[in-house]
Amino acid sequence: MTGVLFGFGLSLSEMINPARVIGFLDVAGKWDATLLFVMGGALLVTAPLFPLILRRARPLLDRQFFVPTKSAIDRPLIVGAAIFGIGWGLGGFCPGPALAGLATASPSMALFVVAMIAGQWAAGRIVK
Amino acid sequence: MVEVNVIGGLIGGALIGLAASLLLLFNGRIAGISGIVGGIFSGNNFAERLWRALFVVGIVCGAALYSIICGAPYIQLQTNTPILIVAGLLVGFGTRLGSGCTSGHGVCGLARRSPRSLAATVTFILFGALTVFLLRHLSF
User: Fold this and answer.
1) Distance from CA of A101 to the nearest CA of B (A)
2) Sign (positive/negative) of CA torsion B41, A98, A26, B100?
3) I need a labelling partner for B100 at 20 to 30 A (CA). Which of A69, A79, B34, B135 fits?
4) Closest by alpha carbon to A93, among A28, A32, A20?
């Protein structure tokens, strides 16, 4: 159910459209601020709710919360984020919209998702 | 085409935020799409893989539902298929190495006021903008 809501939100916000994403990243061209509103809209909800939810002893359907505990800003984090940023700028897709794009049954989208999973697998082999 | 979609963006964003909050409330999980996808293939137990797979199916269904109710969304591909495959590889590699993407670091991590997520978000936006700048304004 939460996945459905997530996918619907992605479509409604047009983040599924790479033109919007590239438009946001294209600071020197015709800058498109839509992504900023999407992130703002999401954070308006998560920023107040997350601390409230995390104050609970446990989630409703599980025994514990699974929240990242690392706090060090290390090299893998920054290098990974940079590589992700380059890929994001090249194609205009991050993982969520790419999955939502599968709903359009476009072969290019499917190839992107397969490549993305392959990339994750490769990184998993190197990191471990 | 460059009209900013303020209303759609805000409401769509709020829905994404609501979905992430509900996932945390019910399942105690962070809605980081890259991590969820990665865990489908490398998860250690069946239940772990199942909820992730269901979440991904949900995203596809949500987008399909949108198409049914509101008409097919615009998807204007910005590049050709070979480049898109390279982009996919980089996105997959980078999100695994950097343990997160726009949803995990950007939406959930910032909400938890995680310094790691802030650093990651600033980095990928910076490198994304740099990539677009090089492609659009320096070459050709």
Assistant:
1) 7
2) negative
3) B135
4) A20
Residue with tokens 């909800």: A45
Q: Which residue reads 């601390």 in tokens?
A: A51
Encode pLDDT of A11-66 as tens digits: 777 778 888 898 888 888 888 999 998 999 999 999 999 999 999 999 999 899 99
- Show residues of chain B in contact with A84, CB under 8 Å: 90-91, 93-95, 98, 101, 124, 127
Task: Annotate A73-125 with DSSP letters as a single string.
Answer: --HHHHHHHHHHHHHHHHHS--HHHHHHHGGGT-HHHHHHHHHHHHHHHHHHH
Q: Which residues contact A55 (CB under 8 A, 6 or more apart)?
A: none
Q: What percent of chain A has pLDDT over 70?
A: 97
Contact A122, B42 (CB under 8 A): no
Q: Do B85 and A65 touch (CB under 8 A)?
A: no
Q: What chain B residue is nearest to A83 in terms of C-alpha separation?
A: B94
CA distance A3 to A19: 23
Cβ atoms within 10 A of the Cβ of A31, count? 14
Residue B1 has pLDDT above 50, yes or no: no
Asked if A10's CB is within 8 angstroms of B59's CB, the reply is yes
